[in-house]
Design goal:
Elements: H1 2-18, H2 20-58, H3 61-64, E1 66-72, H4 77-94, E2 99-108, E3 111-114, E4 127-134, H5 137-140, E5 141-143, E6 156-157, E7 163-170, H6 171-177, E8 184-189, E9 198-208, H7 214-223, E10 232-237, H8 240-250, E11 256-264, H9 274-289, E12 295-298, H10 301-344, H11 346-355, H12 362-379, H13 419-430, H14 441-446, H15 453-469, H16 477-489, H17 500-518, E13 526-530, E14 540-543, H18 554-575, H19 585-600, H20 634-661, H21 663-676, E15 678-680, H22 681-688
Parallel strand pairs: 4-10, 7-9
Antiparallel strand pairs: 1-11, 1-12, 2-4, 2-11, 3-4, 3-8, 5-9, 6-7, 8-9, 13-14, 13-15
């Protein structure tokens, strides 16, 4: 063993000495590459730290601090402590490693400000007021001569049973409003006529010790009243105990803006921890927002770090260039090594060449195959009796040489089957299952326009599976109906947990679609409406045409836009403008696409005329150009956008007019959707058009003889779960 080792090393040394030049070159190359690589890494690390420090120093400290805000009510100490513990706890877990100091506080809703005895005139001028408390106020502001700190014991009812509160105001507010120390003002809540007023006694005026501190930044960003520039708003500073024990109890329904400011220590954020800082801020915000829907977060630190990471990416280019140079050096010495070896081993190289395979990649193979196919097709004689038939779903990407006369010169387009074709396809697939005799395949074919052969096969299989799950031996029309709904609308998600408010909103949304559809003469009849989640939708209204359609009229396309807008309009009418949800995004997308089709492809715009303005949709495949052709000018594009908006707005306004006039029908249909969850088109028409209540019979029970497997003839055996 030892002797073999010694022999091997003797051989290595001998071979190395015989290639001394080669060995020296390799050693020099490796040392040079290592030196360049080490210097590059050191340089880049220093560059990262310098760039980050420069970015942090250039940003004002207040913008880097993390300010949080949440709107809560009613105003109680318990509520405040609950929210405060949540935010501070999540901040400690996520951003505590780079934020140390904390400033917190809160501000009330806006009150009408007036003089005592003039409460009946409250709100008629531009005078407003609000109360706020803030930690560390004494460290950032001092009293002007003549004032005093409010005495909480004086906050009580006076002889007229009016609440008296002592408070401080800022120097700026005193100067702008003309309020002096000792003045008594009356505040009246705007949000309720039933709540009583309160008198505020100004005991002192606050002067800022340093207006540039983050303390005042928090007050301006979170606690300032959102009453607009047209109002003169006076902030009243009170203690935390006065705020909760006096104001909170006297004005129980008063909303409060709570705020916390976390002081960011820039020296704790290094270049290596930039990504950690971004993730920490995102985790902090998402964790709090999941529990506080009205939560908002203000900071520029995450944007700065993201921008820093982007700039860092481009700063890596010099390092990449250097690494390429290192690679070139190493490659040079490898080539040198290879040259020396080839010089000494030409015989072996010649042998290796004789063993090599041919060249050619995937593209070469494809083109050779295509060329060979073209040659073979040209070589066929008329008396050989050979016919070549090919099928494709992408005729647009075929090579033009394949489609010239003499090759594939006959093109047969196989479109979706009509009603007769669908009936014949259903007969083929229906032989595999057991059905009741009264099932009419013609009726099923009439109710499945646009179905392909695969869709029809899936429809039959789904109906058999549904029957088997119910323990039936044969398939009934009910299973075909349910299978069609599943294929068209997706499977029901009855396990999805929804609140009553969510169901109510969905019911009115779908009722809006249905009511507009009923009042659009050109629209297809309603097949079914449901508020059960199906597929990716929380509910839907399905319409089916009475016959196969091969083209669409202007009236029909406009009715589709109006129907799509019906759900959004219903939400706005019933729940208000601010309660409109994002549930109509697919409706808006569909309406916009329909309007765009009318304007750019169907020539149904009076302004633009019967011209096509469609975009180039060619795929980058089989030599297709990456460049896209501009088919309209910028001015025309603006007109197209205006026409699309006009059509969508017209549909929106029409849906709004219909639902406003038919508001009782909307309420009636939504109520029944909440009760039954799913309504057929016939039930909806009887309810709305004939004003007949919905009455449903109990499901029929099947006898033991009828129970079994509807899949027996398909070779499948269902599993019955009780």
């Amino acid at each position: 063993m030892l002797s073999d080792f010694i022999t091997t090393w003797k051989f290595v040394i001998k071979r190395s000495l015989s290639h001394a030049r080669l060995l020296v070159s390799v050693v020099i190359g490796v040392l040079l590459a290592a030196a360049i690589l080490s210097g590059t890494v050191i340089y880049f690390n220093s560059l990262k730290e310098i760039a980050l420090d420069t970015s942090l120093d250039a940003m004002p400290g207040n913008d880097l601090d993390i300010v949080t805000k949440t709107v809560r009510g009613p105003t109680t100490v318990v509520e405040y402590e609950k929210v405060s513990n949540l935010i501070i706890g999540e901040a400690t877990r996520n951003i505590g490693w780079f934020s140390k100091n904390l400033i917190s506080g809160g501000s009330s809703a806006t009150f009408f400000l007036t003089a005592p005895g003039k409460e009946d005139q409250a709100g008629k001028d531009n005078a407003r007021a609000y109360f706020l408390f803030s930690s560390d106020l004494n460290d950032h502001a001092g009293l002007i001569d003549g004032g005093r700190i409010p005495d909480n014991s004086n906050n009580q009812l006076d002889q007229n049973s009016t609440l008296v509160i002592e408070a401080l105001i800022s120097e700026e507010a005193a100067w702008e409003s003309g309020i002096e120390i000792g003045d008594t003002l009356s505040v009246v809540p705007f949000w309720s006529d039933e709540l009583d007023r309160a008198n505020v006694v100004v005991t002192g005026v606050l002067r800022k010790l340093n207006s540039d501190t983050n303390f005042w930044y928090l007050n301006e960003l979170v606690f300032s009243a959102n009453t607009g520039d047209s109002f003169r708003t006076v902030p009243f500073y009170v203690s935390k105990d006065t705020y909760f024990q006096i104001l909170g109890k006297s004005f129980a329904n008063m909303d409060t803006n709570y705020g916390w400011m976390f002081d960011v220590q820039k020296d704790l954020i290094s270049a290596d921890k930039a990504q950690d800082g971004i993730r920490s801020i995102e985790l902090f915000e998402s964790a709090v927002r999941a529990q506080l829907p009205n939560y908002r977060q203000f900071t520029s630190l995450d944007e700065l770090l993201v921008d820093y990471e982007k700039r860092l990416f481009f700063s890596k280019l010099p390092m990449f260039v250097l690494l390429v140079l290192v690679a070139v050096v190493v490659l040079y010495y490898i080539v040198t090594l290879s040259g020396l070896l080839i010089e000494r081993q030409k015989g072996e190289i010649a042998l290796l060449r004789s063993r090599g395979a041919g060249l050619g990649g995937g593209n070469d193979e494809r083109e050779q195959t295509l060329n060979q196919l073209l040659v073979e097709m040209d070589g066929f004689e008329t008396n050989e009796g050979v016919i070549i038939i090919a099928a494709t779903n992408r005729p647009d990407v075929l090579d033009p040489a394949l489609l010239r006369p003499g090759r594939f010169d006959r093109q047969v387009v196989v479109s979706l089957p009509d009603i007769l074709g669908r009936e014949k396809i259903l007969k083929v697939h229906a032989k595999k299952i057991s059905m009741v005799p009264e099932i009419s395949l013609r009726t099923i074919a009439r109710g499945t326009p646009g179905f392909s052969g695969a869709d029809l096969a899936n429809l039959v299989n789904e109906s058999a599976l549904l029957a088997a799950r119910k323990g039936k031996r044969i398939v009934t029309p009910q299973e075909f109906e349910e299978a069609r709904d599943k294929v068209l609308m997706g499977a029901e998600k009855r396990s999805m947990v929804q609140t009553e408010d969510d169901k109510k909103l969905t019911a009115y949304h779908e009722a809006g679609h249905a009511i507009v559809s009923l009042n659009e003469k050109a629209d297809d009849p309603i097949h079914k409406a449901t508020i059960l989640p199906r597929g990716r939708a929380l509910g839907m209204v399905m319409t089916l045409p009475e016959r196969d359609k091969y083209s669409k009229s202007r009236e029909y396309m406009k009715s589709q836009i109006s129907k799509a807008m019906g759900g959004r309009v219903a939400e706005e009418i019933i729940f208000g403008h601010d309660k409109v949800t994002s549930g109509a995004r697919q409706d808006i997308k569909m309406a916009t696409a329909e309007a765009r089709h009318m304007v750019t492809e169907a020539g149904m715009s009076e302004l633009l005329g019967p011209l096509a303005y469609g975009e180039n949709q060619d795929e980058v495949f089989l030599g297709r150009s990456v460049a896209r052709n501009q088919q309209m000018s910028e001015e025309t594009a603006k007109k197209v956008d205006l026409e699309i908006k006009k059509l969508v707005d017209e549909g929106y306004q029409k849906a709004k007019r219909i639902l406003t006039e038919k508001i009782e029908d909307l309420h009636k249909l939504a109520k029944n959707l909440l009760l039954y969850e799913t309504l057929t088109g016939e039930e909806i028409r009887d309810l709305i058009l004939k004003n007949e209540p919905i009455e449903r019979a109990k499901d029929e029970d099947f006898s033991e003889e009828e129970k079994g497997s509807a899949l027996g003839s398909m070779g499948l055996k269902p599993k019955i779960v009780h």
